[in-house]
Amino acid sequence: MQSKIILSALFVSMGIKLINDTCSVTVNKVQIESEKWNNKQPLRIIQISDMHNRKFGKNNEKVFRQLKKFTPDIVLITGDLIDRSTKEFSRVKGFIQELTLNYPHVFFVNGNHECEHPREQQLHQILIENGVKILNNENSVCNVEGTSVNIIGINDAATDHDDLQKATDRVDGNYYTILLSHAPNIVWKEEEAISQMNLILSGHTHGGQLRIPFIGALVIPEQKFPATYDQGTYKLDKDCTLYIDHGLGTTRLPVRLFCRSQITYMEVFHKEN
């Protein structure tokens, strides 16, 4: 009898954990240092990734409740805003309209689900009409508090749409440089060139989506178990950091476990030589 009660309690606890990790939104706060960032004030970044057309409360109020706690200089969306099975874009349109209403500097790169969606261009048009800068194998310079920042975006590397050479054309190497790549596999596809970046922001992995305590993620796209890059911060070179956000949405299975839906708030500080 006692064992049944304990087992029932475990199932209930696991169910509550699944619902909380899948449906709530948390903020992962990250701080890094860079010699290249030449401003006394930190560069403040919000990263949003892998939403997969999910909704978090009415009009995504759970996401915006978290966003309103911060005043980022730039918002960077690292792909998979939609799912490849998304049939209409009203939900993502409402999200983008609210986002750009509050944050003027928003950048986007494709994920594999955008690349594989037959109405990719329709989504792009919604983004453009609402002031989002799309960087699929392109680059842009953003002025933050009088300091120039390179923002480079590559089209999805997991589906081989990436062209880093094209994306980095005419980039001024004197500026702090951020690379947006939905899939982190760019770090081994372009190992030599990647060290020229200061910060690489990716998603795609979902952090495994379902994680086991003390073991971690069992399945990560394009990587064998145990994965080399699944979530969090990795130092690739002296002044080159990779950060993988495990994102908001889900794919295949509509649940998360020990891997909560999240956005990331990052601050980049100047590091003295």
From TrEMBL:
SUPFAM superfamilies noted in UniProt: Metallo-dependent phosphatases (SSF56300)
CDD domains from the UniProt entry: MPP_YkuE_C
Cellular component, GO annotation: membrane
Limits of the Calcineurin-like phosphoesterase domain: 43-207
GO biological process, one term: lipid A biosynthetic process
A GO molecular-function descriptor: UDP-2,3-diacylglucosamine hydrolase activity
Keyword annotations of the record: Hydrolase, Metal-binding
Record carries keyword Transferase: no
Keyword Endoplasmic reticulum: no
Record-linked InterPro entries: Calcineurin-like_PHP (IPR004843), Metallo-depent_PP-like (IPR029052), Metallophosphoesterase_sf (IPR051158)
PANTHER family hit by this protein: PHOSPHODIESTERASE YAEI, TRANSMEMBRANE PROTEIN WITH METALLOPHOSPHOESTERASE DOMAIN-RELATED
Protein name: Calcineurin-like phosphoesterase domain-containing protein
Native source organism of the sequence: Gracilibacillus halotolerans
